[in-house]
Amino acid sequence: MDAKDTADTVTDELVAANAQYAESFTDPGMDARPVRRVAVVACMDARLDLHEALGLALGDCHTIRNAGGVVTDDVIRSLTISQRALGTRSVALIHHTNCGLESLSEEFRHELEMEVGQRPAWAVEAFKDVDQDVRQSMQRVRTSPFVPHTDDVRGFVFDVTTGLLREIDPEIPRER
Ligand SMILES: [Zn+2]
Q1: Cα 140 to ligand 1 centroid, rounded to whole Å
Q2: Most buried of the four, 26, 77, 135, 155, by CB within 10 Å?
Q3: What protein family does this chain belong to (predicted)?
Protein backbone atom coordinates (compact mmCIF):
# COMPACT_ATOMS: atom_id res chain seq x y z
CA MET A 1 0.00 0.00 0.00
CA ASP A 2 1.17 3.46 -0.90
CA ALA A 3 2.14 5.63 2.09
CA LYS A 4 -0.36 8.15 0.84
CA ASP A 5 -3.22 5.70 1.32
CA THR A 6 -2.48 5.32 5.00
CA ALA A 7 -1.88 9.01 5.71
CA ASP A 8 -4.28 10.48 8.23
CA THR A 9 -6.80 12.95 6.97
CA VAL A 10 -7.35 16.07 9.01
CA THR A 11 -10.52 14.51 10.39
CA ASP A 12 -8.52 11.50 11.59
CA GLU A 13 -6.29 13.98 13.41
CA LEU A 14 -9.33 15.57 15.02
CA VAL A 15 -10.60 12.20 16.19
CA ALA A 16 -7.19 11.36 17.66
CA ALA A 17 -7.06 14.74 19.43
CA ASN A 18 -10.50 14.08 20.85
CA ALA A 19 -9.42 10.77 22.36
CA GLN A 20 -6.70 12.68 24.23
CA TYR A 21 -9.13 15.39 25.26
CA ALA A 22 -11.59 12.86 26.65
CA GLU A 23 -8.87 11.24 28.77
CA SER A 24 -8.56 14.29 31.00
CA PHE A 25 -12.14 15.43 30.60
CA THR A 26 -14.39 15.41 33.62
CA ASP A 27 -18.12 15.99 33.40
CA PRO A 28 -18.61 19.64 34.42
CA GLY A 29 -22.19 18.77 35.35
CA MET A 30 -23.49 21.81 33.54
CA ASP A 31 -26.97 22.67 32.47
CA ALA A 32 -27.58 23.50 28.78
CA ARG A 33 -28.47 27.07 29.73
CA PRO A 34 -25.47 29.37 29.16
CA VAL A 35 -24.09 30.64 32.48
CA ARG A 36 -23.60 34.24 31.29
CA ARG A 37 -26.88 34.30 29.39
CA VAL A 38 -25.36 35.62 26.18
CA ALA A 39 -25.45 34.48 22.55
CA VAL A 40 -22.50 35.46 20.36
CA VAL A 41 -23.09 35.62 16.61
CA ALA A 42 -19.82 35.71 14.70
CA CYS A 43 -18.10 35.05 11.41
CA MET A 44 -16.68 31.57 10.95
CA ASP A 45 -13.25 33.11 10.27
CA ALA A 46 -10.43 30.85 11.47
CA ARG A 47 -8.50 33.76 13.00
CA LEU A 48 -11.24 34.59 15.45
CA ASP A 49 -10.98 32.60 18.68
CA LEU A 50 -14.17 33.78 20.35
CA HIS A 51 -13.63 32.22 23.75
CA GLU A 52 -10.07 33.58 24.06
CA ALA A 53 -10.88 36.97 22.57
CA LEU A 54 -13.91 37.58 24.79
CA GLY A 55 -12.80 35.90 28.01
CA LEU A 56 -15.44 33.22 27.73
CA ALA A 57 -15.25 29.87 29.50
CA LEU A 58 -16.92 26.57 28.76
CA GLY A 59 -20.64 26.82 29.39
CA ASP A 60 -20.73 30.62 29.31
CA CYS A 61 -22.45 31.35 26.01
CA HIS A 62 -24.07 30.17 22.83
CA THR A 63 -21.90 30.64 19.76
CA ILE A 64 -23.64 30.94 16.43
CA ARG A 65 -21.28 31.20 13.48
CA ASN A 66 -21.51 31.38 9.71
CA ALA A 67 -19.73 33.03 6.78
CA GLY A 68 -19.74 36.73 7.68
CA GLY A 69 -21.58 36.38 10.99
CA VAL A 70 -24.65 37.34 8.97
CA VAL A 71 -28.04 37.38 10.69
CA THR A 72 -29.84 34.95 8.39
CA ASP A 73 -33.17 33.25 9.07
CA ASP A 74 -31.26 30.35 10.52
CA VAL A 75 -29.40 32.63 12.93
CA ILE A 76 -32.77 34.06 14.00
CA ARG A 77 -33.92 30.48 14.53
CA SER A 78 -30.96 29.82 16.83
CA LEU A 79 -31.35 33.12 18.70
CA THR A 80 -35.05 32.43 19.20
CA ILE A 81 -34.29 29.03 20.73
CA SER A 82 -31.39 30.51 22.71
CA GLN A 83 -33.59 33.13 24.33
CA ARG A 84 -36.95 31.39 24.58
CA ALA A 85 -35.82 27.89 25.54
CA LEU A 86 -32.37 28.37 27.03
CA GLY A 87 -32.54 31.64 28.89
CA THR A 88 -30.08 33.96 27.14
CA ARG A 89 -30.76 37.69 27.31
CA SER A 90 -27.88 39.45 25.52
CA VAL A 91 -26.66 39.26 21.94
CA ALA A 92 -23.15 40.19 20.78
CA LEU A 93 -22.54 40.39 17.03
CA ILE A 94 -18.93 40.06 15.88
CA HIS A 95 -17.77 40.80 12.35
CA HIS A 96 -14.10 41.36 11.57
CA THR A 97 -11.57 43.13 9.38
CA ASN A 98 -10.36 41.41 6.23
CA CYS A 99 -13.45 39.22 5.89
CA GLY A 100 -13.73 36.89 2.91
CA LEU A 101 -17.20 38.26 2.16
CA GLU A 102 -15.75 41.67 1.28
CA SER A 103 -14.19 40.17 -1.85
CA LEU A 104 -17.44 38.56 -3.03
CA SER A 105 -20.59 40.07 -4.52
CA GLU A 106 -24.08 38.86 -5.31
CA GLU A 107 -22.59 38.04 -8.72
CA PHE A 108 -21.35 34.91 -6.97
CA ARG A 109 -24.91 33.55 -7.08
CA HIS A 110 -25.09 34.16 -10.81
CA GLU A 111 -21.76 32.40 -11.33
CA LEU A 112 -23.05 29.44 -9.34
CA GLU A 113 -26.18 29.31 -11.39
CA MET A 114 -24.17 29.35 -14.62
CA GLU A 115 -21.94 26.58 -13.35
CA VAL A 116 -24.40 24.16 -11.77
CA GLY A 117 -27.68 25.13 -13.44
CA GLN A 118 -29.40 26.16 -10.25
CA ARG A 119 -29.53 29.49 -8.46
CA PRO A 120 -29.14 29.17 -4.69
CA ALA A 121 -32.14 30.25 -2.63
CA TRP A 122 -29.83 32.04 -0.20
CA ALA A 123 -28.26 35.46 -0.60
CA VAL A 124 -24.46 35.63 -0.54
CA GLU A 125 -24.75 38.55 1.91
CA ALA A 126 -21.51 40.01 0.60
CA PHE A 127 -20.68 43.50 1.85
CA LYS A 128 -18.37 46.42 1.14
CA ASP A 129 -18.67 48.34 4.41
CA VAL A 130 -18.16 46.20 7.49
CA ASP A 131 -19.55 48.86 9.87
CA GLN A 132 -22.76 49.07 7.87
CA ASP A 133 -22.98 45.29 7.77
CA VAL A 134 -22.80 45.15 11.57
CA ARG A 135 -25.58 47.78 11.77
CA GLN A 136 -27.69 45.74 9.41
CA SER A 137 -27.17 42.67 11.59
CA MET A 138 -28.13 44.54 14.79
CA GLN A 139 -31.23 45.82 13.03
CA ARG A 140 -32.28 42.35 11.92
CA VAL A 141 -32.05 41.02 15.48
CA ARG A 142 -33.83 44.03 16.98
CA THR A 143 -36.70 43.90 14.52
CA SER A 144 -37.25 40.15 14.60
CA PRO A 145 -40.69 39.31 15.99
CA PHE A 146 -39.34 36.02 17.33
CA VAL A 147 -36.48 37.32 19.48
CA PRO A 148 -38.03 38.68 22.69
CA HIS A 149 -35.02 40.28 24.41
CA THR A 150 -33.45 43.05 22.32
CA ASP A 151 -32.42 45.60 24.99
CA ASP A 152 -28.85 44.37 24.97
CA VAL A 153 -27.91 43.80 21.33
CA ARG A 154 -24.46 45.16 20.50
CA GLY A 155 -22.26 44.91 17.44
CA PHE A 156 -18.49 44.92 16.97
CA VAL A 157 -15.71 44.62 14.42
CA PHE A 158 -12.81 42.43 15.54
CA ASP A 159 -9.44 43.55 14.16
CA VAL A 160 -7.60 40.38 13.10
CA THR A 161 -4.24 42.17 13.32
CA THR A 162 -4.58 43.66 16.83
CA GLY A 163 -7.13 41.37 18.46
CA LEU A 164 -9.17 44.39 19.52
CA LEU A 165 -12.91 44.86 19.22
CA ARG A 166 -14.34 48.13 17.95
CA GLU A 167 -17.96 48.80 18.86
CA ILE A 168 -20.32 49.95 16.12
CA ASP A 169 -22.88 52.66 16.75
CA PRO A 170 -26.28 51.29 15.71
CA GLU A 171 -27.20 54.69 14.25
CA ILE A 172 -25.92 55.46 10.76
CA PRO A 173 -23.57 58.46 11.07
CA ARG A 174 -24.93 61.47 9.16
CA GLU A 175 -23.10 62.22 5.92
CA ARG A 176 -21.42 65.59 6.22
ZN1 LIG B 1 -15.39 36.75 7.95
Answers
A1: 18
A2: 155
A3: Belongs to the beta-class carbonic anhydrase family.
Residues 91-134: pLDDT tens digits?
999 999 999 999 888 889 999 999 999 999 999 999 889 999 99
Residues within 5 Å of ion ligand 1, judged at the Cβ atom: 43, 45, 99
Gap from CA of 142 to ligand 1 centroid (Å):
22
Report CA(52)–ligand 1 centroid distance (Å): 17
Q: How far is the CA of 149 from the centre of ligand 1 (A)?
A: 26
**Domain extent for 60:** 31-168
What CATH number is associated with residue 45?
3.40.1050.10
Is residue 159 a contact partner of residue 99, using CB atoms and an 8 Å limit? no
Residue 57 covered by a domain: yes
Number of domains in the chain: 1
